[in-house]
Amino acid sequence: MASEFYNRTRRSKSIPLNLLRRARLHDIPLYFLLCSSDLAREGFRNSGSYNFADHIYRNLPSGKNAFGRWVDARLLALAPVRSFRSRFLAARDELADFLCRRNGSVSDVVSVPCGIPREMAEGAAIARRLGVNVNGIRFHGLDLDPQVLKLARTFALEQGLTSFITQEGDALDRASYPQAADFVTSTGLSEFLDDEKLAVLYQCVYKVLRPGGTFVSSGMQRRRVSEYLLKMAEIRVHYRNAEALQKIALEAGFHDVTVKYDAFGIQCILVARK
Q: Of the residues 24, 57, 77, which one is the last residue of a structural domain?
């Protein structure tokens, strides 16, 4: 299977020209207004990039000027964007709970694709505040982009994850993963995979996990506002409900699978155990 950047769905060279060709004239002023926001500009230019996701996870408005920061704040306050952030919070909290239950025992934690591994850093920080020694935890960041891995390594070290290990590779290739793991998080990838590829991802994670290991992933529901903005940015995603995610996880071999919707009913968070 050839490696590919699954989130790079944009096809046209210029979004405004594409809107013009499609006679979406009313969207062109909106496009340029939104581009004053760092979040929207990143989404338009680089599809579903790690910077786009991390901007939402940080939840700090920024833009070209005061107006851009205002637009950014309004975007971050939208229900679909807040829902997007909820998957990060769910992964962070599940990891913190896992670290507390392990209580300092040697374990391997994997984020795939890792992007900026904020859920690892904040999950570990929560565990530390609760008195857990996380020095025995090996944190692994798997990503296909070597530049992202450099940024991930720098971020992890700054956040005190001294045992952070990077691995360049495809999330759908078992050989890219460490030999074994106890906890795997993969949020924001399933939306860019069709059912066949998502099944491969879940199977890879199942094979990697040790008995009793935990897998956290996410899915996305179709909503009018989010779909409108995603289409404008030419970000093409696959929508799935909780039942669809659960079915794929069970077929991959997981026996203990729960999928819950977030408070907005947009993101569904899957927690599966081997």
A: 77
**Which among 263, 225, 261 is positioned nearest to 241, based on CA atoms?**
261
Count of domains forming the chain: 2
Q: Is 194 helix (H, G, I), strand (E, B) or coil?
A: coil
State how far the alpha carbon of 165 is from the alpha carbons of 6, 7, 137, in Å: 23, 23, 11
d(CA 145, CA 266): 28
Q: What predicted TM-score, i.e. pTM, was given to this entire model?
A: 0.88
Q: Give which of 76, 107, 96, 52 is closest to 216, Cα–Cα.
A: 96
101 & 73 share domain? no
Residue at token pair 């851009």: 68
Residues spanned by the domain of 19: 15-77
Residue at 151 is within a domain:
yes
Q: Is 90 found in the same domain as 55?
A: no
- With contact defined as beta carbons under 8 Å apart, do 115 and 55 qualify? no
Backbone angles phi, psi at 11, to 5 degrees: -115, -35
4 occurs within a structural domain: no
44-103 pLDDT per residue, tens: 787 767 888 899 999 999 999 999 999 999 999 998 889 999 999 999 999 999 999 988
Check whether residue 20 and residue 142 sit in a common domain. Answer: no
Q: CA-CA-CA-CA torsion for 81, 87, 90, 91, nearest 10 degrees?
A: -140
Which residues make Cβ contacts (< 8 Å) with residue 41, sequence separation at least 6?
34, 35
Separation between Cα atoms, residue 143 and residue 207, nearest integer Å: 18
Looking at the structure, tell me whether residues 120 and 25 fall in a common domain. Answer: no
Residue type, 63: G
Q: How many CB atoms lie within 10 A of CB 179?
A: 7
Question: Coil, strand or helix: which one is 113?
Answer: coil
